[in-house]
């Protein structure tokens, strides 16, 4: 029996649930599996152009939850206005039987999943005495990223920069009200980040002009940076930081190459000795000093999608939500 | 609205008349789509380590059918084989909405057969009359009960792709004789019976691989030696007659010396170069310039590159599972299901 969940079903399933808090241990479980190399994942192709239609598949195993699965997402500019209403799904298989147990549209939990991933990274890598955060980007994912940081650290001040002044002012107004914290829109990325203990980036620069949004010389010693999209950081920043992807093997297998990191690692300019999965599992060292610049490079991974998909399926089941598809019935 | 089709429903669609010819037509058009589609293929990773459960997707576009989609494959659960197997799905290329999801077991074998049918149609000599089939026998048990259950299930299906490939070749060429070489006499006898019943052409079990392929005009190799780690199919270039066409859809079946002395047609050059692990040794030979830049079968079918140049040329098709073909077949099954009014509708808007 396969449980099918629409966006409405998923929204109903997670209504009243602190999704971010619930997903943090789910993400940590997936990362632990990756550290043990049991969260085997398949390399991922991502679009190199915003207009190219491409089904991006991010698949992996989450053995601790007896799950295999991932995300299938049709990307690319819609051919007509209003397109892409139902184009992102998580699929969940039982690891023991490899039978499909659930399929869900994931829009209602997508930003919460990002927030949880940023929360895990920030809690494991940022200094404990951080109070100021800079947000680069002003969209839904930037807000989610900020939520993740606030979940991990007792922040008292937030600055935001986005090239469009209306967008950044709206973001500041909206998130101040929603998160009950001072959010100040500023006129440049440098002004936003140079006093920040944590910088969290969620921009569309890769699909706009691929201009890097910050450089290492702007950052305070001991800063922690979260980057979840390509082209946000320059090579200089990577070279001056300890870089923590979920897992290096995963990051280096992504096509097209993520920010030239293969070449930087091959040349020895970026060390591939740290990864968030290993830190979460206690196998690897995280931040080594209060002065160290740490960077979380966070493309989502198959094990994380599988784990979140399983959590949503179980949550919906417990509430009797969703449509059941009986694959063994004669009705077809 | 997503149309959901279970195994039985897909099987009923597949059981229709002239299936192989229709699937060959779908796959042939898909090759034209591949040649014309401007988006680079996604790098497709095929699992070679079958000792662990795997899940992976192979995706692509079929613009002439208005879809983008692919296949979602699972391999081996920790407690044995999946009872439902893999799935195909497709999205509407215009709206972006998911159109259908179905278990692809009944159609999957025909897809690979159709690949071979298209390759043979475009590359083999028109008067090809003798088909040699070199195929693996059953995989022996490994002693691990959980794995042996999966091996037994896989062995039960061994004949299916062989049958589909033979059916495809016979659909496009006037085959009058079929020779079968495999690892056990029992399996060979079983295949001979299945093949004769399927295509109505006299078939016989050969005493050796060499006996099967010498003088054959089309050779189908499907020896899964990559998974067994036992090297190539054992077929050498010297056994192959001038003018023969060889379908070698599994990497590693023929060696570099063989490949240098024939004209190789991958399914598509960009896909050949995007596959991981690489389709060796040919991918390295292309990258290193050891062989002239090959044409893809997609380009041959689209008639932008030539196929066979003369009657004596030995041609080799090195097939690979392409996402566009999965998407095209998904669209075809979807249309068949809509026409018949079968399947379960999953309403996403209420």
Molecular structure report:
The complex is a heterodimer of chains A (332) and B (350). Chain A has 2 domains: 2-109 and 303-325, ornithine cyclodeaminase, domain 1 (2-Layer Sandwich); 110-300, NAD(P)-binding Rossmann-like Domain (Rossmann fold), CATH 3.40.50. Helix content of chain A is 36%, strand content 20%. Chain A has helices spanning 7-14, 19-35, 107-125, 140-152, 165-179, 189-193, 205-208, 235-239, 248-252, 261-266, 276-281, 302-318, and strands at 2-5, 54-62, 67-75, 88-94, 100-105, 132-136, 157-161, 182-185, 198-201, 224-227, 242-244, 294-297, 323-325. In chain A, helix 1 (7-14) crosses helix 12 and helix 3 crosses helix 4 (140-152). With 350 residues, chain B is of the alpha/beta class. Chain B is 39% helix and 19% strand. In chain B, strands 8-7-6-9-10-12-11 form a 7-stranded parallel beta sheet. In chain B, strands 2-3-4-5-1-13 form a 6-stranded mixed beta sheet. Residues 226-230 of chain B have low confidence and may be disordered. The interface between A and B is large, with 53 and 59 residues.
Task: Please give a quick description of this structure.
By secondary structure, chain A is of the alpha/beta class. Chain A contains 12 helices and 13 strands. Chain A has 2 domains: 2-109 and 303-325, ornithine cyclodeaminase, domain 1; 110-300, Rossmann fold (3-Layer(aba) Sandwich).
The figure for the number of domains of chain A is 2
Beta-strand residue percentage of chain B: 15-25%
**Integer-rounded radius of gyration of chain A:** 19 Å
CATH topology description of the largest domain in chain A: Rossmann fold
Instruction: Kindly report how far apart the N and C termini of chain B lie.
Output: 10 Å
Beta-strand percent range of chain A: 15-25%
Q: Please work out how many helical segments of chain A DSSP would assign.
A: 12
Instruction: Compute the CA-based radius of gyration of chain B.
Output: 20 Å
Tell me the name of the CATH class of the largest domain in chain A: Alpha Beta
CATH superfamily of the largest domain in chain A: NAD(P)-binding Rossmann-like Domain
Overall number of strands of chain A: 13
Largest sheet entry of chain B: 7 strands, parallel
CATH domain topology of the largest domain in chain B: Rossmann fold
Number of continuous helical runs of chain B:
13
Order of helices and strands of chain B: EHHEEEEHEHHEHEHEHEHEHHHEHE
Broad CATH class of the largest domain in chain B: Alpha Beta
Shape of chain A: globular
């Amino acid at each position: 029996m396969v449980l099918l969940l629409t966006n409405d079903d998923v929204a109903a399933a997670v209504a009243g649930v602190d999704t971010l808090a619930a997903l943090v241990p789910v993400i940590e479980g997936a990362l632990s599996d990756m550290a043990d190399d049991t969260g085997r994942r398949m390399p991922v192709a991502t679009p190199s152009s915003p207009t190219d239609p491409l089904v991006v598949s991010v698949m992996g195993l989450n053995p601790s939850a007896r799950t295999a699965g991932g995300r299938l997402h049709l990307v690319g500019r819609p051919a007509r206005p209003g397109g892409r209403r139902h184009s992102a799904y998580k699929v969940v298989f039982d690891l023991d039987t490899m039978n499909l147990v659930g399929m869900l549209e994931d829009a209602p939990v997508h930003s919460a999943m990002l927030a949880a991933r940023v929360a895990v990274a920030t809690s494991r890598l940022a200094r404990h005495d951080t109070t100021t955060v800079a947000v680069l980007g002003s969209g839904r994912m930037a807000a989610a990223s900020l939520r993740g940081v606030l979940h991990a650290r007792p922040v008292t001040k937030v600055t935001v920069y986005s090239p469009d002044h209306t967008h950044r002012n709206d973001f500041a107004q909206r998130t101040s009200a929603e998160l009950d914290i001072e959010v100040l829109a500023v006129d440049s990325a440098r002004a936003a980040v140079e006093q920040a203990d944590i910088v969290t980036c969620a921009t569309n620069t890769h699909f706009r002009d691929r201009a890097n949004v910050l450089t290492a010389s702007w950052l305070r010693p001991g800063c922690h940076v979260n980057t979840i999209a390509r082209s946000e950081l320059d090579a200089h920043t990577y070279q001056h930081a300890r870089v923590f992807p979920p897992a290096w093997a995963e990051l280096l297998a992504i096509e097209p190459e993520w920010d030239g990191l293969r070449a930087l690692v091959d040349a020895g300019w970026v060390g591939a000795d740290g990864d968030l999965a290993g830190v979460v599992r206690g196998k690897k060292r995280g931040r080594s000093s209060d002065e160290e610049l740490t960077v979380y490079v966070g493309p989502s991974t198959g094990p994380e999608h599988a784990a979140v998909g399983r959590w949503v399926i179980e949550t919906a089941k417990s509430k009797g939500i969703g449509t059941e598809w009986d694959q063994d019935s004669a009705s077809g | 609205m997503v149309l959901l089709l279970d195994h039985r429903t897909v099987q009923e669609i597949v059981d229709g008349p002239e299936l192989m010819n229709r699937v060959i037509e779908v796959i042939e058009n898909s090759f034209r789509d591949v040649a014309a589609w401007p988006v680079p293929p996604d790098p497709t990773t095929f699992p070679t380590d079958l000792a662990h459960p795997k899940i992976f997707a192979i995706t692509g576009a079929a613009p002439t059918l208005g879809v983008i989609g692919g296949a979602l494959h699972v391999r081996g659960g920790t407690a044995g084989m999946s009872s439902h197997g893999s799935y195909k799905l497709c999205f509407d290329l215009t709206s972006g909405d998911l159109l259908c999801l179905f278990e692809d077991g009944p159609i999957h074998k025909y897809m690979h057969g159709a690949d071979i049918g298209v390759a043979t149609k475009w590359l083999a000599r028109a008067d090809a009359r003798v088909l040699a089939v070199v195929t693996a026998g059953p995989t022996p048990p490994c002693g691990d009960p959980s794995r042996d259950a999966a091996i037994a299930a896989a062995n039960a299906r061994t004949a299916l792709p062989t049958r589909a490939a033979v059916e495809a070749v016979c659909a496009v060429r006037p085959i009058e004789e079929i020779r079968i070489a495999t690892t056990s006499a029992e399996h060979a006898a079983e295949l001979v019976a299945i093949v004769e019943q399927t295509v109505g052409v006299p078939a016989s079990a050969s005493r050796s691989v060499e006996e099967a392929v010498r003088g054959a005009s089309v050779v189908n190799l499907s020896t899964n030696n990559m998974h067994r780690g036992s090297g190539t199919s054992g077929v050498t270039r010297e056994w192959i007659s001038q003018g023969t066409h060889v379908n070698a859809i599994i990497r590693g079946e023929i060696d570099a010396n063989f490949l240098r002395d024939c004209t190789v047609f991958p399914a598509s050059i960009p896909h050949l170069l995007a596959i991981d692990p690489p389709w060796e040794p040919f991918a390295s030979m292309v990258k290193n310039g050891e062989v002239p830049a090959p044409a893809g079968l997609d380009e041959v079918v689209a008639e932008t590159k030539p196929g066979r140049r003369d009657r004596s040329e030995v041609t080799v098709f090195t097939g690979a599972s392409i996402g566009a073909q999965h998407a095209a077949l998904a669209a075809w099954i979807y249309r068949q299901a809509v026409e018949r009014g079968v399947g379960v509708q999953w309403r996403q808007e209420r």
